[in-house]
Write a structure and sequence with these properties.
alpha/beta; TIM Barrel; 2 domains
């Protein structure tokens, strides 16, 4: 048995590690007298709040450091059947205007986009997706490449999602779109805003009304600078920033992404705040555990019975 410090998703706690068969078990409370401390911090598997499983080899998630992923744009029939031990929450398709992003993108798989023609169609689509078992609704407000949903259709999506108790996450890109999406009722942005620097008042309104999924590492140079500046001020205003990578957007790992961890640190997160952004599973549940040497999530690896090394005790 080893004495250990673990993170339960909110705070640091003391516990003890033991081995049952080949399974490592964490118990809360002080370890027995004489138990040697285990170097490093223990927590549950992390969450990526923005992935696209149809664009990657999703079977690679099984041995990864991710225990939960949130798919934000896929054929709902396909993603509902995606095999593996990883918990998958999903929005189903992008809901967009006729001809809107990403309906014309070659990377968008069949069934991953729904074009909303009017308010009645918006309500029916949300009802259909709720019946299909989605965990949230994804709506597009991207003005640069084409048309966006009008305010009425957007509001109907938000209203009907609320009927089914489903949160609405928005892809917001282009001047004014982040503010518009939140004003119309989206409670989460799929990306930290990157196409314009938000004013202090806009940052304050966002922090009070919505959370942001980071996806900082998908950007380069000037766009990254804008996203980081917005994220720093959003955090300073009390906003909630969630770890997400837009997995499938380019050559992203099907695992924890070190570049995203580094970008979150550059935005001002570290220590317990950084760990909370990664939304780890409760390590007291019967699931795999992570060992973080020096408490560094980018060095995290799955904890095994060999780490307990009970033969030396």
């Amino acid at each position: 048995m080893r004495a250990v410090t673990f993170f339960d998703g909110e705070r640091m706690r003391e516990g003890a590690l033991d081995v049952t068969g080949e399974r490592v078990v964490l118990r809360a409370g002080a370890a027995p007298a004489g138990a040697r401390p285990l170097d490093g911090l223990v927590t549950g598997l992390f969450t990526d709040h923005h992935v696209h499983l149809q664009l990657v080899d999703h079977t690679l998630l099984a041995p990864s450091r991710l225990g939960r992923v949130v798919d934000l744009g896929a054929d709902p029939d396909w993603v509902a059947e995606a095999p593996g031990p990883t918990v998958v929450e999903y929005a189903g398709p992008f809901l967009t205007a006729p001809g809107g992003y990403p309906s014309d993108r070659a990377w968008a798989p069949p069934g991953s986009v729904r074009e909303i023609v009017d308010a009645a169609n918006a309500a029916h689509t949300v009802d259909e997706l709720a019946a299909a078992g989605v965990s949230l609704i994804k709506v597009v407000a991207h003005s640069a490449p084409g048309p966006v949903l009008d305010d009425d259709a957007f509001r109907v999506i938000v209203h009907q999602a609320a009927v089914h108790r489903l949160p609405v996450v928005a892809h917001a890109e282009g001047p004014g779109q982040a503010q518009r999406a939140v004003r119309l009722g989206a409670t989460r942005l799929a990306h930290a805003p990157f196409s314009e620097r938000l004013s202090g008042a806009e940052i304050g309104a966002q922090a009070a009304s919505a959370s942001w999924i980071s996806t900082l590492a998908i950007h380069d140079d000037d766009t990254l600078a804008v996203a980081l500046d917005n994220a720093r001020r959003f955090l300073a205003a009390g906003g909630e920033l969630l770890y997400g990578t837009d997995m499938g957007n380019g050559a992203t790992p099907v695992d924890l992404r070190d570049a995203e961890i580094n970008a979150l640190r550059a935005a001002g997160l570290d220590g317990v705040d950084l760990l909370a952004t990664l939304s780890p599973a409760d390590p007291l549940d019967a699931g795999p555990l992570l060992l973080l040497p020096d408490g560094d999530p980018s060095r995290a690896r799955r904890l095994t019975a060999a780490d307990i090394d009970i033969t030396e005790l």
